Amino acid sequence: MTTDAEARFDELIAADSRIEPRDWMPDAYRKTLIRQISQHAHSEIIGMQPEGNWITRAPSLKRKAILMAKVQDEAGHGLYLYSAAQTLGITRDEMTEQLITGRAKYSSIFNYPAPTWADMGAIGWLVDGAAICNQVPLCRASYGPYGRAMVRICKEESFHQRQGFEILLTLMQGTPAQREMAQDAVNRWYWPSLMMFGPPDDQSPNSAQSTAWKIKRFSNDELRQRFLGMLVPQAEILGITLPDENLRWNDETGQYDMSEIDWTEFFEVLAGRGPMNTERVRARREAHENGEWVREAAAAYARKQAAKAVAA
Ligand SMILES: [Fe+2]
Ligand SMILES: [Fe+2]
After folding, report:
1. Is 249 helix (H, G, I), strand (E, B) or coil?
2. Are the C-beta atoms of 133 and 226 separated by less than 8 Å?
3. Matching PANTHER family, A to Z (predicted)?
4. Residue 247 has what pLDDT?
């Protein structure tokens, strides 16, 4: 039997209205959102590492300032998303605990190393580019706090994608060694960035329910195709080769043909066996432990202020 609360929820979803924290929602909807938003938040925070690693080595003051701003944006994205997840009843401490004990999942893309400066270009162009394709439709996600966080995040992601493109463009107009470095970075990040959209539609068990709840608006394969539509003309401008000899537009299907993605690699990295998984979680745990005195000081200050307010 459908209760009034359930009927109201279904009505809001059908009308493309937003579900807000005060509204009744099915448990499974809440759980799905907590999982998705917290994983998304963790990805933003872990995603600071491959680029944070290059801030001290950026080739000029200007590049350093831009990269620092970009990495700070990612920290901000993590914070909006943790706050959005908290409105669903999970605490920040619980989420942090899941991350630093290695129990939480985050985007497998951040478990790859960034050995050269050109990786900063490839990450911005490909990883932030894929993030935009994934996130623009999430601005209309049915859960209000998630959709609203996404609007601001997307604006910043588009700056990130352009700064990556511009790094690659500069390298591609440079010496043969610089061009080679740019091409090598794109070769390494291209396939993992395509994996960011998740498994093919016929192997994506949770997609149908998320689509029915209007959290997800396009399928994994549709988003992957959109991403290719963005990359192909930009690769041409860059003079960079996308490392797939089977990649071409197919007039009949109205889609890009491409080689098979190596899903074994994807599932291995997701299961914690990627090149950098252990290091990423270790660095996060260490940062959390080293920040303990800051949290203590902030809490002590808050107590002092509260006591003063009571006394006044
Ligand atoms: Fe981000
Ligand atoms: Fe970004």
Report:
1. strand
2. yes
3. 1,2-PHENYLACETYL-COA EPOXIDASE, SUBUNIT A, PHENYLACETIC ACID DEGRADATION PROTEIN PAA
4. 97
Give one DSSP letter per residue of 130-190, joined into a string: HHHHHHTGGGG-SBHHHHHHHHHHHHHHHHHHHHHHHHHHHHHTS-HHHHHHHHHHHHHHH
Q: Which two tokens stand for residue 67?
A: 């990269």
Distance from the alpha carbon of residue 84 to the mean position of ligand 1, in angstroms: 15
Could you tell me the distance, in angstroms and rounded to a whole number, from the CA of residue 155 to the centre of ligand 2? 10
Does the reported pTM lie above 0.85? yes
Kindly identify the ligand whose nearest atom is closest to the C-alpha of 150.
1
Chain segment 157-210, per-residue pLDDT in tens: 999 999 999 999 999 999 999 999 999 999 999 999 999 999 998 888 778 899
What is the Cα–Cα distance from 258 to 253, expressed in whole angstroms? 12
Ligand number with the minimum distance to the CA of 128: 2
| Helix, strand, coil percentages for the chain (3-state, nearest 5) | 70, 5, 25
Q: Is 116 helix (H, G, I), strand (E, B) or coil?
A: coil
- 257 phi, psi to nearest 5 deg: -80, 145
Q: What percent of the chain has pLDDT over 90?
A: 94
Query: How remote is the CA of residue 225 from the centroid of ligand 2, in Å?
Result: 20
pLDDT at 1: 60
Per-residue pLDDT, 60: 96
- Pick the ligand that lies closest to the CA of residue 77: 1
Average pLDDT of the segment spanning 38-43: 96
CA 65, chain centre distance (Å): 22
Arithmetic mean of pLDDT, 123-151: 96
